[in-house]
Design brief:
Elements (H helix, E strand, L loop, with lengths): L2 E7 L4 E7 L4 E5 L6 H13 L3 E6 L5 H4 L2 H8 L3 E3 L4 H10 L15 E2 L5 E4 L2 E7 L8 E5 L4 E5 L2 E2 L2 E2 L9 H12 L7 E4 L5 E2 H7 L8
Parallel strand pairs: 3-4, 4-5, 5-6, 10-13
Antiparallel strand pairs: 1-2, 2-3, 7-8, 8-9, 9-10, 11-12, 13-14
């Protein structure tokens, strides 16, 4: 059975997720941990639950979602999976990290490219990869069909959507991604976003002022 643990890290209050199942294997999604206390919070949870990280996943590569990439790769001996179109986004972080107060930022590299239709497997769990650009050019989401749970990154928030004014962002593309990739899922699908509280597809169809569907 899939279990999801959420952490809110760094000044952006970015949601980092650890997904694990009965095999004790786990994946880390968007590690935003930067300072020592945040890194310890993540490692202590993994250690205290006897988990074994096997993969590192990025929904996209904006700074707040990748601050802990290098640490997780080194500390757990795991490799990074992300979309190829977000590789330039990841490489650019070093140039502006100090402007946001992250002077000690460590660079990381993508080890494996993932794209629409791929399946990420760990333990007895399979996550379907959805390509949902708009907030970032290579943004992906991870969907667990058995439990109807979606790790959505910064695409869809509770009554909001991801910003599109950053390099590679495009508002029309984002709305298209939401309508064609997310709103085609069941209304009861629970969305675990990159910031803020969880929501459901059905709720956002009705109440989201940016992308809701007229009934």
């Amino acid at each position: 059975m899939l279990k999801i643990k959420a952490f809110a890290f760094n000044p952006f209050q970015e949601n980092t997720y650890v997904l694990h199942d009965e095999t004790k294997e786990c994946v880390i999604i968007d590690p935003g941990c930067f300072d020592t206390s945040e890194k310890l919070e993540l490692t202590d949870f993994i250690a205290s639950n006897g988990l074994r990280p096997v993969k590192l996943l990025n929904t996209h590569c904006h700074i707040d979602h990748v601050l802990g990439n290098a640490y997780c790769k080194r500390n757990f001996g795991i490799e990074l999976y992300a979309h190829k179109k977000d590789e330039p986004v990841l490489r650019a972080v070093k140039a502006y990290a100090s402007n946001y107060g992250f002077a000690g930022y460590e660079e990381s590299e993508i080890d494996h490219y993932i794209d629409e239709g791929d399946v990420v497997e760990f333990g007895s769990t399979s996550l379907d990869v959805l390509f949902v650009p708009g907030h970032a050019p290579g943004h992906v989401a991870f969907y667990h069909a058995d439990t109807r749970q979606l790790m959505g990154g910064d695409v869809l928030f509770r009554q909001s959507i991801g910003r599109t004014d950053l390099p590679g962002g495009d508002h029309n593309t984002l709305i298209k991604s939401i309508h064609e990739k997310l709103f085609t899922l069941s209304d009861d699908v629970e969305v675990f976003p990159g910031h803020g509280e969880t929501t459901t597809i059905g709720y956002e169809k009705v109440y989201n002022p940016f992308c809701g569907l007229k009934r």
